[in-house]
Amino acid sequence: MAYSFDFSSLLDYTPVLVDGVATTVGLTAVSTVLGVALGIGGAAARTSTVKPLAIVVGAYVELIRNTPFLVQLFFIFFGLPSLGIRLAEWQAAVLAMVINLGAYSTEIIRAGIEATPKGQIEAGASLGMTGPQIFRYVVLGPALGKIWPALTSQIVIVMLGSSVCSQIAAEELSFAANFIQSRNFRPFEAYFLATALYLALAVALRWAFSLIGRRMFAKGVARA
Amino acid sequence: MRFAKILGALGLATAVLAGGLVSTAPTHAKADALERIAKEKVLRVAVPQDFPPFGSVGTDLKPVGYDIDAATLIAKEMGAKVELVPVTSTNRIPYLTTGKVDLVISSLGKNAEREKVIDFSTAYAPFFNGVFGPDDIKAEKVEDLEGKTVGVTRGSVEDIELSKIVSDKVTVRRYEDNNGTISAFLSGQVQLVATGNVVAAAIFERKPPRLPNMKFLIKNSPCFVGLNKNEGPLLEKVNAIIAKAKDDGSLDGISKKWLHAPLPKDL
C-alpha cells in the first residue's frame, strides 16, 4: 500500500488554488456580514410582540433549517431562472449562504436575547429609552457576547458548507481541488491540500472571531 | 488399480475437451461469412442495449435505436433476416472474434489497438464533441465564443479539448456531471454547451424551449461497423450498402430520428 505523494504536480495549478481560496474567503466574508445582519433582524422580529412578524420569521427559520443547503442552492440557481430571475453563480452562492446563515443565526441570537434578564430591560425603560434604543444598547450587546462562540461555530460551518457551491460551478476552493484532480489525476494530493487549506481557514476564522469578541464584549464573552 | 483408472478417465476427458475446442475453433475465421449469410438468410449483429440513442431496450423489451435501425437496414439490403445480439461495450469485440456474430454495429469507434484485431467498414454514424446552442447565438468557430458563457462537464473529453483552444475571454463554467451541464443550459445559466452529440440529442428528447443546435465541432470520432479480419467480400458488401444508404438518404433519416440532427456531409 505504498503511495508516493507527488505534490509538485500541483504547482502548475497554483493560480487556480489561489483563486479558489480567494473566492471561498470572499463568499464567506460577504455572507457572514449579511447573514449575521439578517440574523439580528430575524431574532428581533422573532422575539418582538408583533405576532404576525414573529410567525413569518419563524416559518422562514424552520423552512431553511429543515431543508438541505444543496437543494436551497439548486432552487436558487437552477429553479429561479424559470421565474425570470437569473443569478450568476457567485450571486446565487452568496444568496443561498446568506439565507442559510440568516436562519441559523436568528435562532442562535434569539437564545442570547431571551437570556437577557427582564430587570435590565425594565432598567432601560426607566431611564426613558425607547424600544429600539433598549434593543440596541441594553439587549443586543450582552446577547451577542453570550452566544459569540456558538455564532463563530455556525459561521465556520457556513464557510465549510460553501464547498457545495462548486456544484453550480462557483469556482471556490473545492472547485479548484475537483478541477485539479480531473486534470492531473492526482486526487489524493489535490484533496489533501484542499483539506489543509480549509483547516487553516477555519482556524484563522475562529482566531479572528475570538479576537473581535474580546474587543467588542470586553466583559461578557462566554467561554467556549 | 483404481488410481490408473481415474488417471485414464481424466486423460480421456481432456482429449475430448481439447478435440472439441480444436474442431470448433477454426470455423469462423474463414472468409465465407457472406456466403453463409446468403445461404441461411440470417445476419447476426451485435447491438448495444444500454447506450441510448444508439441502442436501448424499449417499453416492449425489444432493442431500439440508431444501431438497431442501421443493422436492420444492412440486413434488408443483403436480403437476410436480422438477428440482434445485445452486447455490452466490453464484450462486443469478443462476440465478433469468437464468431457469435457477423457484424458489430454497436457505436464502435476506430483506434489502432482495435484495428489489429478486427476490420472496420466506412463510418455509418456520427459521434463527436462539439459546441451546441440555440439559433439566436452565432458561434461558427472558437473565436466566436469570446464574451460568451459555455457550460461543460468537468474533466470530460470535451472539457479538456475545449480548454486547450479557448482564450481567456471565454467564460467556461464546469459542472459536476452531464445533468448539471444540461440543467445549466436549460435554465439559461450558460448560453452554450460543449458536449457530445449524444447528450445534445438527449436534450432534444425533452423538447425544451432552448434547443442545442450544432455550432461547431471539437473532436470527431465517428462509429464504424466492426467485422472479422479476412472477410473481404462481406466488408465490400457492407461498405456498398452504407454508401448507398448515405446517397439515398435512408441513413440521414435514421440520424434525424435518433440524433435529431442530419447526417454530417463529410461522414
From TrEMBL, chain A:
<keyword id="KW-1133">Transmembrane helix</keyword>
<protein>
    <submittedName>
        <fullName>Amino acid ABC transporter permease</fullName>
    </submittedName>
</protein>
<feature type="domain" description="ABC transmembrane type-1">
    <location>
        <begin position="21"/>
        <end position="209"/>
    </location>
</feature>
<feature type="transmembrane region" description="Helical">
    <location>
        <begin position="190"/>
        <end position="209"/>
    </location>
</feature>
<keyword id="KW-0813">Transport</keyword>
<dbReference type="InterPro" id="IPR000515">
    <property type="entry name" value="MetI-like"/>
</dbReference>
<dbReference type="InterPro" id="IPR035906">
    <property type="entry name" value="MetI-like_sf"/>
</dbReference>
<dbReference type="InterPro" id="IPR043429">
    <property type="entry name" value="ArtM/GltK/GlnP/TcyL/YhdX-like"/>
</dbReference>
<dbReference type="InterPro" id="IPR010065">
    <property type="entry name" value="AA_ABC_transptr_permease_3TM"/>
</dbReference>
<feature type="transmembrane region" description="Helical">
    <location>
        <begin position="20"/>
        <end position="41"/>
    </location>
</feature>
<keyword id="KW-1003">Cell membrane</keyword>
<comment type="similarity">
    <text>Belongs to the binding-protein-dependent transport system permease family. HisMQ subfamily.</text>
</comment>
<keyword id="KW-0472">Membrane</keyword>
<dbReference type="Pfam" id="PF00528">
    <property type="entry name" value="BPD_transp_1"/>
</dbReference>
<keyword id="KW-0812">Transmembrane</keyword>
<feature type="transmembrane region" description="Helical">
    <location>
        <begin position="53"/>
        <end position="78"/>
    </location>
</feature>
UniProtKB/TrEMBL annotation, chain B:
<feature type="signal peptide">
    <location>
        <begin position="1"/>
        <end position="18"/>
    </location>
</feature>
<keyword id="KW-0732">Signal</keyword>
<dbReference type="Pfam" id="PF00497">
    <property type="entry name" value="SBP_bac_3"/>
</dbReference>
<feature type="domain" description="Solute-binding protein family 3/N-terminal">
    <location>
        <begin position="42"/>
        <end position="262"/>
    </location>
</feature>
<protein>
    <submittedName>
        <fullName>Transporter substrate-binding domain-containing protein</fullName>
    </submittedName>
</protein>
<dbReference type="InterPro" id="IPR001638">
    <property type="entry name" value="Solute-binding_3/MltF_N"/>
</dbReference>
